[in-house]
Amino acid sequence: MVSLEVSLCGLKLRNPTVLASGIRGNNAYLLIRAAKEGAGAVTSKSCSLLPREGHNNPTMMGCQPFMLNAIGLSNPGVDEEVEEIRIAVKRAGVPVIASIFAHSVEDFAKLASRISEAKPHMIEMNISCPNVHREGKMFSASPSDAASAVAAAREATSAPISAKLSPDVPNIGEIAAACVGAGANCITAVNTMGGMLIDAYARRPVLFNEYGGVSGPALKPIALKAVYSIRKAIGPDVPIIGTGGGASGLDAVEMIMAGATAVGVGSAVVLRRNAFREICNEMKAFMKENGYSKISQLKLES
Ligand SMILES: Cc1cc2nc3c(=O)[nH]c(=O)nc-3n(C[C@H](O)[C@H](O)[C@H](O)COP(=O)(O)O)c2cc1C
Fold first, then answer.
1. Which of 160, 188, 200, 302 is most buried (CB neighbours < 10 A)?
2. For domain 6-297, which CATH number applies: 3.40.50.300, 3.20.20.70, 3.40.228.10, 1.10.3720.10?
3. Which residues of the chain fall below pLDDT 70?
4. Is residue 21 lining ligand 1, measured as CB closer than 6 Å?
5. Residue 75 near residue 52 (C-beta atoms within 8 A)
């Protein structure tokens, strides 16, 4: 009998797949739908203190093996989001992770406090969005900036916190360790990687924002390296939600072998029908075929 159950910061997940932030998680009903489709946990779209319209179109381009987006973190603001998270927590039947995003340490603290009113099972701090560079530097670009954002949120909430990191850094392990040192209970790795596309006929960048974030299968080797190096840096005890390019059961198994506790699934929800169920079925088939009965047995040979 193969079990896919995992434990994440004391939360029991029926399987390791986690809906990643920003992909069909814009309201309670989309979060509930992902849970019904088989996700082990769900993450909401990042919300800010005040509503944000996001960037103008075009904001997204899908061309296998990757997607490029610069949505610009459009969201209704925390006042509405608290109500969405409250509904999702009541009705999703799986752990709900509330994602927050801010431009200042103070706003991260305010958001962490406010979103906690909805009692999410975890708060994910998006300190790594690549599409808002012009508005300031990513907190996750340096260990001290990342740590100061996490420390401020830590003071403001008793909910478990996951710090979501960018792959666009030379020292992601050091940044993860700084976040854990500042009170993060979990690391989510990775956010999208900065990129752009040019339309040669139009002689201009494809996205209105020019730059965007690369996600999907092309991100997989980058995410695997990030998770592997974070695991080395933070040791065995702090969980990692390994995110980036996961689209099949084998991708998920490899992410866990790299050191992830659970596997974030983003672009695959768009690229593949019934992604959560299919990924889980494929994981089970791989495990059965190769003599594994539980997720904790999926380790690299040492
Ligand atoms: C359209 C889109 C919107 C996203 N919005 C957010 C967001 O609001 N907050 C966040 O932390 N990550 C956001 N992400 C990043 C994803 O959560 C994930 O980290 C990234 O896409 C890599 O995973 P994937 O390859 O499985 O898609 C977004 C990604 C996409 C494609």
1. 188
2. 3.20.20.70
3. 130-136
4. yes
5. yes
